[in-house]
Amino acid sequence: MNECSDRVAPNPVTLIVDAEKCIGSGMCEMLEEAIFLIDEDTNVADVIGTGHLPADRAAAVIDRCPAGAISATDQAAT
Amino acid sequence: MVGATFTSAADHNVTDSHLYLDGIPHDRFAALRAQPGIAWHPYGNDGFWAVTRHADVKEVSKNPEVYSSALGHTNLWDLEADALEARRSLIDTDAPDHTRLRRLISNVFTPKDIGRWGDLTRSVVHDVLDDFEAAGGGDWVDLVAAPLPIRVILSILGVPIEDADYLVELSNYLVEGTGEEQSLPPDAFGNSTELRLLPFNSPASHAMFEYGARLADLRRDNPRDDMVTMLVQAEADGKKLSASEFRNLFHLLIFAGNETTRTALSHGAIAFAEHPAQLARLTADRSLIDTATDEVLRSATPVLHMRRTTTRATELAGTEIGAGEKVVMWYASANRDESVFPDPFAFDIDRGGSNQFSFGGGGPYFCLGAFLARLEISSLFDAMADRGIGLEQRGEIKRCPSNCVHGVLAVDMEPVK
After folding, report:
1. Using N-to-C axis directions, what is the helix angle for B118-134 and B370-387, rounded to 10°?
2. What is this model's ipTM?
């Protein structure tokens, strides 16, 4: 694959949470409650539902996650 | 002391606590923002990198593996190793311990969980506004800004309400510890710990530790539906909080849940008194409450700076920074960055977006209590709109002489219809 850091993710994108980094702030759950849920036992965000978001909303939730724990997968949503 | 001998670099001195008696030295920060790269600011026998632009504060905030919170101290001065260990809280812990501690307490501070405290908060808001109106005004800090957040955080923690005054008193002494003079003798409150081992070098910290430990013992034996019970029972990654972790966390929650919100509510009142048209605008259109809350926060910047220490050599805004050097993020400056906030000194409740940095510049140290603070601020000014009362400031603002917290000690306000 061509290594290009500013490659724009396809639209819509699939989001994943890095459970090691998540601090359970709940920011993602507030912004996108259909996609994220804080697990009451682990206090870590889980991706629920489709995990898909339009690129602009995905970028916003990635940027606003305090822990930097949310990222888009390379796998395009279908 | 820095500040006594002004050299060309010292013209931009932003650490002299006495400067802050007249408010944040915004002209100096504006000059620092205008300089290319990152300015080196002398401090004591050494100095720090003064990060003053919004984008650079964000960069530091979001890269905790380069800009450590655990090395040295998160204040301007270094602590000796034993003091750092004794005083260590969530604020000055790096991953993975930070992640573990943060997660352990996060599930009462998410936006969803904070929503449960809405009715309680609104009820406390109306109580303090009743008192304020009945008194025909008076010291806004004493009547409104101080009692509101302490009553809310104490309810959440499960501290008996009759102890609120005592904990407000302790918190007031802690604020003193961020300035240069302390009125308490070292052995106040029966303290026998060396002051350098206590947060804010204050014997009031000893008293708060003792109080927290007693309450933890009570809740361990008789669990209740409150946060102290949750903290003594909580486990993350199979580990409970140590005694030191608990007492520092309790201290942090009381201080941060009290002092910073008090500051925001004070500066919010000052801003609305100065700009009554903005309060009228909010009264006419309540959908502005969220952006108004952000503008109050931006205007207030309760915590003026936080320090990081580099774990390795790096580069920031084109400036080479060595390993182990102090990097200080000035939120007070980032919140007035003209490249992000057009006409930054105007108080405008409809700026939109929430890119103010009063909860930090993002990253894992993003203010734990951010959503609680937002609830308290929005509830207060929404209630003032409900009641149709405005504010008129009487006399001068009495400010805290601190380069660290933007404290208001007293400001007289009169309710106006």
Report:
1. 50
2. 0.75
